[in-house]
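Researcher: I need the complex structure. Ligand is pyridoxal-5'-phosphate. Inputs:
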Amino acid sequence: MQKREFLKGLTGLGLSTPLTFNHLDALMASIGHLSDDALATHEDFWLKIRADYRLKSDYINLENGFYGIMPKYIEDHYIDHLREINFQGSYYMRTVQMENKKTSAARLAKMAGCLPEELIITRNTTESLNLIIQGQKWKKGDEAIMASQDYGAMRNQFRLMERRFEITVREVSIPNHPKNDEEIVALYESVITPKTQLLMVCHMVNITGQIMPVQKICDMAHRYGVRVVVDGAHAFGHIQFSIEDLHCDYYGTSLHKWLTVPLGAGFLYVKKDQIAGVWPLFAEDSRDPEDISRLNHVGTYPVHTDLAIINAIDYHHKIGGSRKEARLRYLQKYWTDQVRDLPRVVVNTPVESNRYCAIGNVGIETIEPADFAKQLLNDYQIWTVAINRPGVRGLRITPNLFTTLKELDVLVKAIKELSA
Ligand SMILES: Cc1ncc(COP(=O)(O)O)c(C=O)c1O
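Model: Output:
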């Protein structure tokens, strides 16, 4: 084979057997006339999407918030990428690895609504946000803000900064049922002082599913010169948004949750004018201070995952982000509407449709969350996760695109029986 042809074969992202979308093309054409909301209720259509997944029959999986299993289309591509890179060995790594990573990052940037030079691929939200939290130019006496409902690993990282740099971290507690956006904005504003440098906010609170008014919080914080880092672990690939519209300084997410990229992928967005202000975690060769690749020296890692990002984005767009969001919101509303007003049942997720999507949290006053989870698994074969945090005691219920109304009927029956 000519050298040129050989190299050409390596440069594209479609490294291996083309796996096509024929089945989805026909399916999507058949529903093209329906609005997102009408399609959300079209159980036959979603049953066909369900057939795209390999699902275990032992339990009803309502714990898709941890990570979102891949549809077969993405899984097959992923395995092919792994095989092909293992076949090419270090030749792949030394020739097109970085070029391919950049292509995947550019596709993510397009989907996220930011510039390609503002985004790097990371392993997950933990890495993305910790890069920012530990990478600030902290001085003794500086202050930061987080919420009691934020994710443990990020809260721990802020506490570490307190010990390491002698900063102070102030904490707010987000109401499960806010009156309006202004109540939340005022809460964060109440703890800002002239020393505040950084505010962290979840785009979607992982334990309750509450969607936060991020843009309003960012605009308020910026009036005080405070930078905002957004924990978007649960938002990207789940709800439709553009980073540009959020007005944040940093945004981190995991791609193995709602975009169904294989495990171990995330991204970090850093606004162009903030890049130079962040210390890298691992030192890179000398670069322009405004070059985001300065923050992305990670050593050797499973690079086949970078390639599967493209397949996951293709799959996401094939179904359509707004269709996916409408279905997920419909599923949550379907079950919460049936249990919200029952005696002893506490739904810890807001009722307004702009404040939730797939995730809901439900508790029963008379049952410990861990026991509730056990009973659901043992007696109803429903897999969930117990949450027992101040102000949030219940189970996090997270359906996915393959979840059926029949499965949610089992959940509703279980909640009715256990709370009776
Ligand atoms: C709000 C939030 N932030 C961060 C993370 C950490 O995500 P990862 O483990 O993918 O880094 C999670 C994980 O569930 C989360 O829910």
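Model: Summary of the prediction. The chain has a mean pLDDT of 95.
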